[in-house]
């Protein structure tokens, strides 16, 4: 017989991100962050390649990334609106963890599976932060897809990408529920 864990199931059925712009101080310190990162690193990973790592980004580094996003936006010819959008998550944030996808050479594990695993780390990190009582939000934004921003801002190599910035802080207001998928529309039951 299954041995259910109702508290975990209840969390998964009700979990909800908190918009990054509503996250306030305080943010978790290193000791509080370690179990959250530990939980996130406990993620399905075909072949034990560990195709991911973390960069914990504090306030001063976020300010630097905001300026770099503006510099890169201008260099790329982006509109003022897009440049402002590129800056804002770094301007508003107090703490973010960048989950870095690190592609590992493998004859057996295709690159896409390493990408999926990095995405799973992002969800694990988000859920661990939420379950620890923090507000958290998984963001990307155009700078995360700009190789020059990644290299200059975070020192990433060519085989590394940003799977997500997980912003973590203190919830200041609970967001309304978000419409959730219609299970009948997205689920097909194959019996034969
Ligand atoms: C890869 C990825 C990137 C995302 N980037 C952004 C983003 O840049 N801005 C944003 O508002 N939401 C972004 N989202 C959406 C939010 O993280 C999240 O899905 C939404 O707020 C609802 O989350 P919830 O199901 O935890 O409530 C992204 C989601 C994913 C999976």
TrEMBL record:
* Reported cofactor(s): FMN
Name the CDD domains on file.
YdjA-like (cd02135)
Keywords, comma-separated and alphabetical: Flavoprotein, FMN, NAD, NADP, Oxidoreductase
Explain how, and how many, cofactor molecules are bound: Binds 1 FMN per subunit.
Q: Which InterPro entries does the record match to this protein?
A: NAD(P)H_nitroreductase (IPR052530), Nitroreductase (IPR029479), Nitroreductase-like (IPR000415), YdjA-like (IPR026021)
The residues covered by the Nitroreductase domain are 26-169
Tell me the SUPFAM superfamilies matching this sequence: FMN-dependent nitroreductase-like
Name recorded for this polypeptide: Putative NAD(P)H nitroreductase
Biological source species? Sedimentitalea nanhaiensis
Which family is annotated?
Answer: Belongs to the nitroreductase family.
Q: Which residues bind FMN?
A: 15-17, 42, 46, 138-140
Q: What is its EC number?
A: 1.-.-.-
The record's annotation in Pfam families points to: Nitroreductase
Please give the Gene Ontology molecular function terms for this protein. Answer: oxidoreductase activity
Q: Which PANTHER family match?
A: NAD(P)H NITROREDUCTASE YDJA-RELATED
Task: Report the top EC class in one word.
Answer: oxidoreductase
